[in-house]
Amino acid sequence: MDKRNHLVKSKKPYQDYHFRCWIPKDLDKFFLQKEFRVSLKGYSYSQCKIISNKLHYNAIQIFNKIREGQMNEITLHEVKNILRDKVKQTIKHINHYDSDTNKYDEEVLNERIHQSSEKEKILKERLKSNYKETVGKIEKEIDKILNSKNIKTDKKNVDY
């Protein structure tokens, strides 16, 4: 999977980029095809390259979980939906960074980095003082996301 190009440009007339995922040979029988594509919605090449690298990493993780038996009942459609959600999250993050940060003003950029560090410290402090409550909130959010995608949750599973 690593040797092949996973960012491809679609044919005319639209010239959009797609993430192409080659399904590993040991999982061909599981998905009944050799590859699939996910549209990257016509963003710039540099943004699509970032997104495709993240999707490639996520696809590898999903395939490893299938091999380990943790995601035996997942379908190709569900894999695509997971990757599409990752595209939306990454684009949202890129747009937030681009629109809310003046990258050319060193002082503003440093302030932004400082704010991010402070938020991370606050989350770590919350985890130290109220670990169970914080984890409970995170689990509720995860459950909402999984239920919206009609994916069964198994709280006894170690990966949950």
Please specify the SSE layout and strand pairing.
Elements: E1 7-9, E2 17-22, H1 28-31, E3 35-39, H2 45-68, H3 76-100, H4 106-129, H5 131-148
Antiparallel strand pairs: 1-2, 2-3
Describe this structure in words.
This protein is mainly alpha-helical and 160 residues long. It has one domain. It has five helices and three strands. It has a three-stranded antiparallel β-sheet, with helices on one face. β1 and β2 form a beta hairpin. α2 packs antiparallel against α3 and α4 packs across α5. It is flat. The two termini are 26 Å apart. 10% of the residues are buried.
Output the keywords.
160 residues, 59% helix, mainly alpha
Largest sheet: 3 strands, antiparallel
Extended strand count: 3
Mean pLDDT: 77
Helix content: 55-70%
The secondary structure category is: mainly alpha
Helix tally? 5
Strands of the widest sheet, in order across it, are 1-2-3
- Based on CA atoms alone, the radius of gyration comes out at 19 Å
Low-pLDDT segments, ≥5 res: none
- Global morphology: flat
**Number of structural units classed as domains:** 1
Order of helices and strands: EEHEHHHH
Strand content: 5-15%
End-to-end Cα distance: 26 Å
Compact summary:
This protein has 160 residues and is mostly helical.
